[in-house]
Design brief:
single chain; about 200 residues; mainly alpha; Hypothetical upf0131 protein ytfp; globular
């Protein structure tokens, strides 16, 4: 989950369940320092954990060890939010540029996205929401850079505070703010968009 009205959801890898689409991607050879920088750039462990996995190469079905970022929280499907058009556009362009398998690209293209409604009510609601929560996001980002360890991760106490703020923000959005100003996650509005290339 991300921030309502701006980036309601981000992508995450989780353990596959029946019917899930496998994850495809590109493996990069990074130094330890580079990997720590990736972890830091993705929130210092507040959203993802670095985990060792085994990847199967598309070229010859050989397997290689990889370290990737897995979603730290297993969000129930019924509570998932919609990603922004901007975010999905990045994933779709990357999949196309690296010629990832066609069924995977089609899956990305079929992902509904959050479309910002047009109108003063939504704009006012976003502005009012952002007055407080974007400032909180800034403090979290600043805290990640200040409290990170040599691996790029923040300490456990920071994760606890972050989780409390994240769930408080979404509770406020779902049960108070969105009732007056409209939802900032695309749910229940059904204003979905499907990408075309």
């Amino acid at each position: 989950m991300g921030v309502p009205y701006t980036e309601p959801a981000m992508g995450g890898i989780r353990k596959a369940e029946p019917g899930d689409t496998p994850v495809y991607g590109v493996a990069y050879l990074l130094t330890e320092k580079d990997m720590h920088q990736v972890i830091l750039s993705e929130g210092g462990g507040i959203a993802y954990t670095a985990e060792p996995l085994t990847a199967t190469l598309e070229s010859d079905s050989a397997t290689i060890p990889v370290t990737t970022l897995l979603a730290r929280h297993d969000i129930p499907v019924g509570y998932e939010r919609l990603p922004s058009e901007r975010y999905m556009g990045l994933l779709i362009r990357g999949a196309e540029e690296h010629s990832l398998p066609t069924p995977y690209q089609e899956r990305l293209l079929s992902q509904p996205t959050f479309i910002r409604p047009i109108g003063y009510r939504f704009k006012a609601g976003k502005w009012l929401f952002d007055i407080f929560w974007q400032r909180v996001s800034w403090y979290i980002e600043t805290g990640v850079h200040y409290f990170k360890n040599e691996d790029g991760n923040v300490p456990r106490w920071f994760l606890i505070i972050f989780d409390c703020l994240l769930w408080t923000m979404w509770f406020y959005h779902d049960y108070f703010h969105s009732i007056i100003w409209g939802r900032g996650d695309g749910l229940k509005t059904r204003s979905f968009n499907r990408f075309t290339l």
